[in-house]
Amino acid sequence: MKRLLALLSLVLLSTLVTAQSVLITPGAQSINGDSSSQGQLNAYGSGLVVGPKVKLSEEDPASNMHTMSCASEIFNESFAGTLKDPTGDAGYTGGILYDCDFTLYSTSASYLTTQIDFQVLDTESDGDTVYVLNYSNSEVLGAYSGNELPQTLFVNANAIRIKFKTDNDANVGAGFVLTWKSIIKDTTVAAIENYSGEGLVFDVGSNAFWSGKHAPLDFENRGLFSTAMGYNTNASGQMSTSIGNSTSASGFFSTAMGYKSDAPGNYSTAMGSDTDASGDYSTAMTYFTNASGDFSTAMGRSTTASGRSSTAMGNNTEASGYISTALGYESEASGRYSTVIGSYSKASDDYSTAIGYYTEASGSYSTALGTRASSNGRFGSMVLGDYVSHSANSLKADAGNRLLARFDNGYKFYTNNDLSISSIGLMALHNANSWSSISDSTKKENFIASNGEEVLKSVSQMRIGTWNYKGQNASKHRHWGVMAQDFHHHFGKDAYGTIGNDTTIATADFDGVSFAAIKALEERTRELQSDLASEMRFSASLELTTEKHEKKIEELQEQLQKQLQRNEAYESELLSMRSETMSVRAESRTVQAESKALKEDFKELKEMLLKSVAVKTK
């Protein structure tokens, strides 16, 4: 019995080695003490191990008899029992292939290990074997055959499989009978008395380890499996740890470290100085931090994480919303799922995000970034602001679901990867009121001049008019424009490749086509103006010729009028001088002939004048 009890102390170690035990009692100590009467302080090499008071199960193995079954594995939870081979008290039969399993297991908190003793062992050596295995990993802990009884086996496992396996030859024996008994903790350990609050104490009853200086009342309320180290530390929660000065770990599985750190929440951690982790699964670290929300984290200085699953880091930040995050200085995240990063910023509504300096995201699903940018309570808005020094210049959202941005020195967007080769994109620089595409000729290549007439011809064939996008209110959202399919059909390819696609139109390409059309129209206009100038010069020449003709006609008319007046004078004189001589008549006939010639000249001039007028009119 004494040999068995000496072996029981090995339960607390994973190795089976011979140990020297020193029994310490309130008034006496002895070497190789009996661990069935008190806890043990065991010396192993250079270390000391304090073990609990233990005992063998009081159950009688004979009261729990079992015979192995090869049809199905048997599971047994008894602290003690007897196991026989598949044939029981009779010898097992030759010529049969046995492969049988029997499993011992325990879920009791007082269970430590199992003692196995063979009462009978008579099998074919190296042919028919009894195996003892760790059930969890199938590790073989012992293999027994022949007819020599082995030493007692101690198995430190919660589940043990016993396997009997044979070959099928005729060499057999009487079989085997074994007993098992569990070694368990003895809960009748005497309490620690007259503890002054100073020193090092390991209580095997509660498995609590306390060292340093503590209040005696705190030690009386120590938690199971707790650890307290330092000055005035208190670990009252089960599995809790308190280390440092005036720290307290009262929550289940809690940890408090540092100075005046308090971890009352279950699974909480408080580290640093004056930290408080009162929420379950919470963490408070550094200086004057408070993690009161379950699953919350507070780190830095004077940070507070009061929302469930919230995080507050930095200096004087607060995360009070559910799953909220506050990082930086004097920033606050009070909305659910909100995030604030920076200084003097707030994210006060659900799913809001504020990043920067004096930014505020006050609308649900809103975002404010930069300096003095505010979503202004507008749902789904995004505000991006550059640096401004006065609150009067704050940028505020003016509508929900809208992006509002201000950058005093403008915007640049690049759409290519390697800017060392070429910069492709667009920009709107300081005081610009529209986007500018990068159109530097030194950054272009493979230039092909446009054919103006072909451009005009293509434009004339395109559909141009008003329309609205599908799903839009036709009475409110009408637009002017062309169709991307038409544009791509006429202008989507050149000698080098493809331009754009058939569902969108790039404004730079549209501008290019528009300028090509304008240039073609300008060329047409220039040609028409040249033709018009020629026509105008010809018309001026005609006018000059007509004026000359009209002047000539006027002169002829004047001469004709004078001639008519002379003729009238002559006729009057002839009438009065009928009696004159024939010579006068001859002279009169001559005058008449001249008059006739003048009339013919007049007639010819008149016809020329009419022709000139007709040409001018035409």
TrEMBL record:
A Pfam cross-reference name: Peptidase_S74
Signal sequence interval, chain numbering: 1-19
Alphabetical list of InterPro entries matching this protein: Adhesin_Head_dom (IPR008640), CUB_dom (IPR000859), S74_ICA (IPR030392), Serralysin-like_metalloprot_C (IPR011049), Sperma_CUB_dom_sf (IPR035914)
Protein origin, superkingdom: Bacteria
Entry GO terms, CC: outer membrane
Span of domain Peptidase S74: 439-532
Keyword Transferase included in the entry's annotation: no
Domain CUB per the UniProt entry, residue ranges: 70-183
Alphabetically ordered keywords of this record: Coiled coil, Disulfide bond, Signal
Coiled-coil positions: 539-608
SUPFAM superfamilies registered for this protein in UniProt: Adhesin YadA, collagen-binding domain (SSF101967), Spermadhesin, CUB domain (SSF49854)
Protein's name in the database: Peptidase S74 domain-containing protein
